[in-house]
Amino acid sequence: MDTRIIGIDLAVKAAHKAIVLDQASNRFVSKMLTFHTDPAQIDRVLAAARADAPDDVRLVAVMEATGMAWYSVGVYLHRHGVQVYRVNGQQVADLRRVYKRHAKSDRIDARVLARLMLVCPERLHRCSFPTGPQMALQRACREVALLKEQVIADKNRLLATDQFAWLGLSDIVSAYDDAACWVRAHWYDPWRVVQAGEAAITAAWCAASPQQPADTSWILDLVRRAEQVIALYGDPEQISYALLQAHLQRVQERLRTAQAQVDHLRLKLVRPLYRQLHPQRHLESLRGVGQDSAAVYIAFVGDILRFPSLHDFRGWSGMIPFSRQSGEGQAKGLHITKAGPNLVKATAFIDAQVARQWDPQIAAIYHKQMMSYGKHHLQALCACATHLLDRIYVVLREKRPYELRDVDGTPLDKHLARQICQERYHVPEEVRRRNNHRVRKERRERKVERRLNRRKKKQ
Q1: Total-model pTM
Q2: Distance of alpha carbon 357 from alpha carbon 420, whole angstroms
């Protein structure tokens, strides 16, 4: 079957550029086409691709992921029988350096995109267009992740402010409980606290406390700490506690709002959409994967059949290290690739921390990385996350729940699995200290120094 390849360089606001390449003759059979995201203009591109071609010609479109323009153009092409491929921008940049080393333009990129199908067809994968519910789940998962980052940032801001303004308010009351929030909102000025005294603050807290009878044991410590702060700073205008208190009120209000939005999104949007898209809920049979984590995987993985093999799925996830090999030598300790959605990598990393404590097979991987290979904790967890994603691929591919097993394949219940992880795959604390970043850096420096000394002796 004859094949025509349409290389499309997409633009966000400007016009898109496209050119048609005939696969059999390896030559361009159209001029450079300019079009916008309009059905009539896209039809003209398709007509140019089918010109002077057999009726059964196969049309292939290769485009770069530019904003969301790929979705609009890609869906229309897919509906009209075109096989659509979306490629990574780095692939285009690498081939463009070979095609035109000292030039870059939309026209060159369109030609490069078309050539990619001939140069490395095995590295291109069919574009998967998410459904409406799947896109809504992706947006909701991203929104929850952003709100969680804001919650963490606001909490860190409160702790940092308490540390310098009150020499560590969390030493007196828990940083985020009702008492701490009340102090920040009403009694953050240490001069005012000392002037009011323990009795007045106790009466005010008993009137405002949501729990009755209220715990007042911390108030005396608060007054004493206020005296220490006054002795340290001396001048009330050194920090301007009234303005600082108003700032913390805004931070706490923003924190409460963000946390409420996270809870609302998880309960009202993320979990219902996840159950709609994955009614079997087999992913939750994996240790460390709950509803919210499973929702992230379902949202971004989509149709698992678009990954022909586990190798393809691993490459898409990005949880594999770079490879550098020449002759009989091979570099080790390289960082992971940047492929795949960041939220998938982050979720797999967090889930792996739990999985290694409950799944003996993943615990064995963590143990081997730490004890035999000398990796530090984060490196070992990345290896566990890769294997956790392997299990996710198999569970979705075979549509069956995961079964906990020992390293020899013996089925286990969760309590026995937990016991095995704790006893057989425990990593001693001295090993963790031996593998930390500082110690590893010192070992590398000593190794380099010994190598230099040997060279000097030979000279």
Answers
A1: 0.85
A2: 9
**Does residue 375 contact residue 400 with C-beta atoms inside 8 Å?**
no
CB atoms within 10 A of CB 57: 15
- Work out the burial of residue 274: count CB atoms within 10 Å of its CB; fewer than 13 is exposed, 13-18 middle, 19 or more buried: buried
Phi, psi torsion values for 336, nearest 5 degrees: -75, 160
321 phi, psi to nearest 5 deg = -80, 160
pLDDT at 413: 93
Please provide the average confidence, as pLDDT, over all residues in the chain. 90
- Which residue pairs from 302-306 have beta carbons closer than 8 angstroms and sit at least 24 positions apart in sequence? 302/128, 302/130, 302/134, 303/128, 304/393, 304/396, 304/397, 305/397, 306/125, 306/126, 306/128
CA-CA distance, 110 to 20, in Å (whole number)?
Answer: 9
Give the span between the Cα atoms of 269 and 281, in whole angstroms: 16
Residue with tokens 């990796």: 375
pLDDT at site 324: 61
Q: CA 333, CA 375: separation in Å to the nearest integer?
A: 9
Token pair, residue 97, equals 């350096």
